[in-house]
Design a protein that fits this description.
Blueprint: E1 2-3, E2 6-7, H1 8-23, H2 28-35, H3 56-82, H4 90-122
Antiparallel strand pairs: 1-2
Protein name: Flagellar hook-basal body complex protein FliE
Organism: Massilia norwichensis
Keywords: Bacterial flagellum, Cell projection, Cilium, Flagellum
């Protein structure tokens, strides 16, 4: 099934990777993989290496900040290219814009999964 240009199996694989990483005790190699964007390749989550637990809200805020930063960089590159700045090439600008688009789409899909899970939990019989 294809949801908005992103295959749902890739989203589920990314969620499985996040769950596996959350289930393991924090190790320096796992924290550095998360901080360098090793999960799903969509950018760094910014996990502090000193803490043994990462709260969901901190990870979510860090990822949202990362998405905002990537979009700001792409917009800045677009403005520089449109202004005729020779230090910015068309290919670099287009790549930055595609990265921004992909990170935003991935974030929206994660949000959709979270909302769906919330609705499933709220509709459960107690």
């Amino acid at each position: 099934m294809n949801i908005g240009g992103i295959d749902s199996s890739r989203i589920e694989a990314m969620m499985a990777q996040l769950k596996a990483a959350a289930g393991k005790p924090a190790m320096p190699s796992a924290a550095s993989a998360l901080a360098s964007g090793g999960v799903g390749g969509i950018g760094g989550i910014g996990v502090p290496e000193s803490s043994s637990k990462v709260s969901f809200s901190d990870a979510l805020k860090a990822q949202l900040d990362n998405v905002s930063k990537v979009q700001d960089q792409a917009e800045d590159m677009g403005k520089k290219f449109a202004a005729g700045d020779d230090s910015v090439s068309l290919s670099d600008t287009m790549i930055a814009m595609q990265k921004a688009s992909i990170t935003f789409q991935a974030t929206v899909q994660v949000r959709n999964k979270l909302v769906s899970a919330y609705h499933d939990i709220m509709n459960m019989q107690v």
